[in-house]
Design goal:
Elements lengths: L2 H17 L5 H21 L8 H20 L1
Length: 74
């Protein structure tokens, strides 16, 4: 796994935890995943400077799923 995937995972994890303090978990997860999808669409539309990768979305999803136990404990 590349550093980029770890960054996607970590950012999604932290964003999910942060948003879960002001939104129900389902909404927080949806917002974080939407951000990830929009980022990949942006990358796709700028191929000269960006690389869209479905594995980034998988890492985003992993970060959201990893946040579940932490959210449940709060």
């Amino acid at each position: 796994m590349t550093i980029d995937k770890y960054l996607h995972f970590g950012a999604s994890f932290v964003l999910t935890l942060a948003l879960s303090t002001v939104l129900p978990f389902g909404y927080a997860a949806a917002v974080v995943l939407l951000i990830g999808v929009l980022k990949e669409i942006y990358d796709y539309k700028h191929p000269l400077t960006r690389n869209a990768d479905w594995k980034d979305l998988a890492a985003d999803l992993g970060g959201v799923v990893a946040a579940i136990p932490a959210v449940l404990l709060t």
